[in-house]
Amino acid sequence: MTINIETAIIHAIVAQNDGKLACRLRPQPLNDSQALTHTIEELHRIYTAKPGKGYGFFGLPESETDTAAEVNTDFKEALAAYRQNQLGFVEFSSKAGELLQNELAKYDFAQGGFLLLSSYSHLADDYLFVALLSAKQSLTVNDDMELRQNDHLDLANLQLAARVNLSEWDADPQSRKYISFVKGRAGRKVADFFLDFMGCSEGLNVKAQNKSLMVAVEDCVAATELDKEERQQVREVLFDYCSDKVDQGSSVKLPELSEQLAQAGLDSFYDFTNAGEYGLEDEFDGDKATLRQLKKFAGSGGGVSISFDASHLGERVVYNTIHDTLTIKGVPPNLKDQLLRRLKGGD
């Protein structure tokens, strides 16, 4: 893994006896060690593999209509000062710790944790990684063969984390996607306080981008004379390309994807998307959960759940749009056995 760690530090947000949170600041960066390298590399790997991340920027949401609304710019200003060598990393991180403490104090559920900040580079980009880690108890056996309980950082359960692409921020301050963040299972609201302390707003909806990409491909395919097999081949190329990018931790690049689709028979896809109103960025992350619709049709409701490969539509599975019925030719053997047993029972 090609990661060059510039520096890293951990501060603790702890609950005091009166229930209030306090920030215990570390006075110097973490020592350069194998443990530090392993930790940052593991966090980078886990974070990169996280599906459905959100993307944003420093500032107010584009939909914000209240002209009197303000966004917390303290984190952005401190980070800019650090980048301009006006603040040391320790001073910047201490400011971040205090900002997070103040933000957490607004919520009853806040329990604190360990704020980790690391400046590192990967491939051609510089990053600032920010995460609030929690401790997890575990059991071990000591030299006397006695059970002993200890605490360790729960890296695998990374839920409150964000990463600033410093290179992109420097190159394009107007970008709306140089900050990525982990979205909770219920969406952005799970991590609202974490993004608020950074003054970050969501600017690019990855799921919406992937849905628009699929719509654009279907529209482009419909405008061609490709036969059914060729159209399905285009969908396969799209899914495989995007899946590979997700696995590699890379972004989907429309010009590059257009070249791949051209080899499958779909010409000028990039020009087609630019001419339409699809709102696609030239570069965005793939989302496997959304793109899986290219491979399978699935739905449920009213006690019925159905899922089948997209290639079966029109052959083994036929949809009648007039009568709103779905006909399945060749019922799966295990389902057929269950149906026959029930029918023999007189139901």
From TrEMBL:
<keyword id="KW-0963">Cytoplasm</keyword>
<comment type="similarity">
    <text>Belongs to the YejK family.</text>
</comment>
<dbReference type="GO" id="GO:0003690">
    <property type="term" value="F:double-stranded DNA binding"/>
</dbReference>
<dbReference type="InterPro" id="IPR007358">
    <property type="entry name" value="Nucleoid_associated_NdpA"/>
</dbReference>
<dbReference type="GO" id="GO:0043590">
    <property type="term" value="C:bacterial nucleoid"/>
</dbReference>
<protein>
    <recommendedName>
        <fullName>Nucleoid-associated protein GCM10007894_23230</fullName>
    </recommendedName>
</protein>
<dbReference type="GO" id="GO:0003727">
    <property type="term" value="F:single-stranded RNA binding"/>
</dbReference>
<dbReference type="Pfam" id="PF04245">
    <property type="entry name" value="NA37"/>
</dbReference>
<dbReference type="GO" id="GO:0005737">
    <property type="term" value="C:cytoplasm"/>
</dbReference>
